[in-house]
Specification:
574 residues, Jelly Rolls, Immunoglobulin-like, 6-stranded mixed beta sheet, 3 helices, 9% helix, 42% strand, elongated
Amino acid sequence: TGLPRCGTSFGDLNKALSIELNSNANCVWQIHRTSNQTIRLIFSYFQFAAASSCETESIKVYDGPSTNSSFLGQVCNNTDSVPVFESSSDSLTFLITTNSENFTRSFFAFYYFSSLEPKTENCGGLLTGHNGSFISPNYPKPYPEFTYCVWHIQTARKSKINLEFDDFFLELDKNCRFDFVAIYDGLTTNSSLIGKVCGRSQPKFESSSNAMTIVLAADYANSYRGFSAQYTSIPPPGPAEPNTSLTCSSERMEIVLSKSYLDSLGYNSTHLQLNDASCSPISTDPVIFSFPLTSCGTVKTVEGQTITYTNTITASATGRIITRQKSIEITVKCKMENNSTLEIMYITENNIIQNETATGRYNVSMSFYSSDSFSNPVLQSPYFVDLNQTLFAQVSLHSTDPNLLVFIDTCVASPKPDFGSPTYDLIRSGCNKDDTVVTYPPLEHYGRFKFNAFRFLQNSASVYLRCDILICDSNDRNSRCAQGCISRQKRAASSYVWKTNAVVGPIRLKRGHRSTDHSESLTEVRAEETPSLQQYSFYTLSFVVLTANIIIVVAVILKYRIQHQYGYQKMQSP
C-alpha cells in the first residue's frame, strides 16, 4: 500500500498492491528480485469503468522484466474469474491502461516469490467419486500464509455437483481481497466463476455440469481455521438413457428394451403394447418383442423401390385422475431397399424426440442430414449407413446474436463413445485429414462438412464423431474462424469467443440380406484381419474387378453359344 500513483518497481519477497487510477492512465509495474525463484501474482479485486472494453481498458501481464517480454494474459472489465499469473523466472511486469472516462478505477493485487509457498498436505487434488469431502491445509488450525490450493472435482457424465461448506472461516473483507475461496463451473480456472467467498458462512454452490474447480488463496497475514467441505453428485433429471435395439430380417422384427430404462419411467412390460395390443413380449427382462413383419398391426408402405414396415410401442400413464408418468411412444421401422435392410428406431416422450446437444453459454447441436441441402436431419440413432456412403454433418449454433460464426476446428472418429484408442482424424486444426472430407464455407450459425462412411478394422461396427467447435465474432477478420486451415508449424494464438465440443453417433453399417443363411448381429461385425484401412480397400477393389471380369467372360461365352445354336437351326430349315 502507499504506492506511487502510476507505476513503480518492487524487489520485496511479497507485497500487497492497492492501486487507484483515473482516466488516460498508462502505468507499468515491475517485480524483480535476483534469485532463482518464480512469482505468483493474484488480482483479487478490480473495478474498471463500467462501459469499458478490453481494447480501451485492461491489465496486461508479461513474463519478464518489461512489456517486451512474453505476454501471459490480460484482465478486463468482462473477466469472469480471479486472475492468477505465474512467471517462469524472477521477473514479472504488468501494464494498466484506462480510457478517457472520468472515473476512479480500483485494483487490489498481491504477489509473492515461490520460496514463500508453504509445504503442506491436503492442498488440492483431483476428486472423482460420486461424493467426497476435503479440507483446507491444517484444518481446524489456521491455514499457512501464502496458501494456494486447487481442487478439481469430476463426477459421472451428465451429472451436476452440489458443494457445501460445513465449516468456513477465512479473513473477512467486503470484496474478499486478502484470503478467499473461488469456485469455477468447470474443470479449470478458465471456466465461468460461480462465486468468490470469504469471512464466516456456510456457502453452497451447484455446477451446471459434471466438473467443478475450487481455489483457496491466502496472503501474508491473518489466517484462520479455513474450511471443511463436502460434495455430492446430482444425477441427471428424467429417465435413464434409453438402452434399446432393433433388429430387422427379411421375415421378422425384434425390439429390445432394457428393464432399467422402463423402470426409470415408471413402467414395466405389462404397460407396453404394439399397434395390435394382443401381441405380447416374449421376454420381460429385458423386454423383447419379436414378430413377423406382416403381423401385430405392422403398417406396410411402398415408395418406389423401398418397402417400409412400421410399428409403434406405446406406454400410457396408469393413473385414473392424475399422473406423474411420461407418455412414451417408440416408433420402429424396417426399410427394405436394394437387397439390404435399414433399421430405424426413435423414441418420443411427451411428443419430444430425445436429442443430445453440447451445453454451455451457447447452445450447440450436431446432427447428420440426409443430403447436402441440410434440410432434413437424421433423427434415428443409431444411424445405419452403407459403407462409403456420403454422410452430411452440420453443427448448429442456436443464438439470436447475428454476429457469431461457427468454425469446425477438429473432428475425430472413434469406435468407442469415450474416444479411447484407436481414433482417426477427419479434420485437424481446420485442415481436412481424410481424402473424402469436404468442408463447406462458414454460413452464419452453421458449420458443415461431408465425408464417406467407413468402419474401423478389428473393432466394433460403431463409429462416433467428436468435433471441437469454435465460435467467433463474424466482424473479426483475423479471428481463428476466418483463418481456415492452419498447419501445426504456423499455428499461433488467435481469437475466438467460445470453444466447445459436440459428439454424435453411433454410425453403424447396414446389414445385407442376400441370403437368410448368412446373417449378422446388429452390434457385432467381423473385422477382416488386415493391418490397415488401405489394405481393406485394396481387397475390396480387387474383388469388384474380379467379379466384373467373370461377368464379362460369362457374357462372351453365352453370346458365342447362342450364335452357334442359331446357325445350326438355319441349316435344318429347308
